[in-house]
Design a protein that fits this description.
The chain contains seven helices and 21 strands. By secondary structure, it is of the alpha+beta class.
Length: about 425
């Protein structure tokens, strides 16, 4: 069975952060995992600096693997990955089969960007492992236990293992998971489509209950109050006595359940802090929708946050923002979303009396396109105004206006890339 190159949709990068998306001049690994039909596939690309942290491959040149040494490197790397990548379907431990191996030589034009590890950080070993099954799994447990020391955070006497940000493609969804040396396991449980676990929870709108009075209580209370307030009667004592009796009767009749409502009840207006708590998950879930691989699933997921009339507009805007023209129109994967500023401008009601609010926010989106031996990142920054309304299906975004958009950073992942002197806000990309 050949490797499904058309399904290269997941990735795992060591030492990758939202504030510095460039890989370190040091150990690096790209791990992509698929659960598809009756097979689990792992596609792993590691550099020589990573390999040297776990293996001692005999070679003439310390900085490079030469052709005659490739076969030995293949055998040793397969043994290492068989030990460090554990895959289990339910209670069944799966055994890997080697499905492909290649050594990718470095691009020496980029050597100046790797002053510490040189070509050891640039030469890559690519290996594909398949874990066959007899039936499609309902649960797959992945454990990755190869965590080299972080060359930035570590001290010689106090090494700190790198975290792993992993992407799994399964059930039509790309899932981003952070694996740590202290927590190296991730479990996928047969979820397909717009599963609840994939989205942020949006607070449920509070209800205001109508004020209700039992009719008998109300009648007696009104009668009693009228009698007590009467000043012109020739029998004031009689009226006082009767009025007091009516009021006592009103209190005793409280539990007679024939009610009269004095308000329509309905949905309470949110405070500004409550509106923020509603908007943040709605906004996050817009981008979570683009983790799905089928367009129909993306639309279904968007409908969790966006009113139907706005679906096409938001889909096209976000999709356009993820397209990298410099990469031949490839659509980048969302790696991180950061809400920088959020202001609730107003809270009110629409024509039907349903609560609404207006929010203005600024955010950044990191996207990446992954290739066989390098990656391209782009960070875009946006500012927009949103209208949010309470609908029968819950809170939904009903209006959207982009106020500014600019590219913060773009290009190949290189340690010396700088984000200084970005273009002014408002410049389109």
């Amino acid at each position: 069975m050949g490797f499904p190159w058309s399904l290269l949709v997941g990735t795992c990068m060591l030492g990758l952060t939202a504030t510095n998306p460039h890989p370190l001049d040091g150990p690096d690994v790209d791990l992509r995992l698929w659960v598809e039909g009756e097979s689990v596939t792992a596609h792993v690309v590691v550099n020589l600096a990573f390999v040297d942290g776990f293996l001692e491959i005999p070679r003439e040149d310390e900085m490079l693997l030469r052709g005659p040494e490739h076969k030995l490197a293949e055998d040793m790397l397969f043994e290492l990955l068989s030990e460090r990548l554990s895959v289990a379907a339910g209670s069944l431990q799966l055994q890997p089969q080697l499905a492909g191996f290649e050594v990718i030589d470095p691009n020496f034009d980029l050597l100046a960007h790797f002053p510490r590890f040189g070509t050891r950080a640039m030469q890559k070993l690519r290996m594909t492992l398949e874990f066959p099954l007899e039936t499609p799994p309902s649960e797959v447990k992945f454990t990755w236990s190869a965590f080299p020391d972080d060359p930035i955070l570590s001290e010689p006497e106090d090494p700190v293992p790198m975290d792993v940000i992993a992407h799994l493609s399964a059930g039509g969804v790309r899932t981003r998971v952070t694996l740590k040396a202290s927590d190296p396991t991730f479990i996928w449980r047969g979820l397909t489509g717009a599963s609840e676990d994939h989205f942020e929870d949006v607070p449920v709108l509070a209800k205001t209950e109508p004020t209700q009075w039992p009719l008998l209580t109300l009648a007696l209370a009104v009668a009693g109050a009228s009698m007590l307030a009467s000043r012109r009667s020739r029998r004031p004592r009689v009226l006082l006595t009767a009025g007091a009796a009516c009021l006592v009767g009103a209190s005793l009749a409280w539990n007679v359940r024939t009610d009269l409502s004095f308000s329509n009840g309905g949905e309470a207006l949110p405070s500004h802090s409550q509106a923020k708590a509603v908007f943040e998950p709605l906004h996050t879930n817009i981008y979570r929708a683009f983790d799905f691989t089928n367009q129909s699933d993306v639309y279904d997921a968007l409908a969790r946050s966006v009113h139907g009339d706005l679906l096409d507009e938001l889909y096209n805007q976000i999709h356009e923002g993820l397209v990298m023209q410099e990469e031949g129109g490839a659509v980048s994967e969302v790696q991180d979303l950061r809400l920088k500023e959020l202001l609730i401008e107003s809270v009110g009601q629409d024509d039907t009396g349903s609560p609404t609010f207006s929010a203005r926010c600024q955010w950044e989106v990191d996207g990446a396109v992954f290739h066989s031996n390098h990656s391209h990142w782009r960070t875009n920054q946006y500012e927009a105004r949103y209208g949010v309304a309470a609908t029968a299906a819950g809170w939904r975004i009903v209006e959207h206006e982009i106020l500014a958009a600019r590219r913060v950073d773009a290009g190949p992942i290189l340690p010396q890339d700088s984000q200084e002197n970005p273009p002014p806000i408002g410049e389109s990309f």
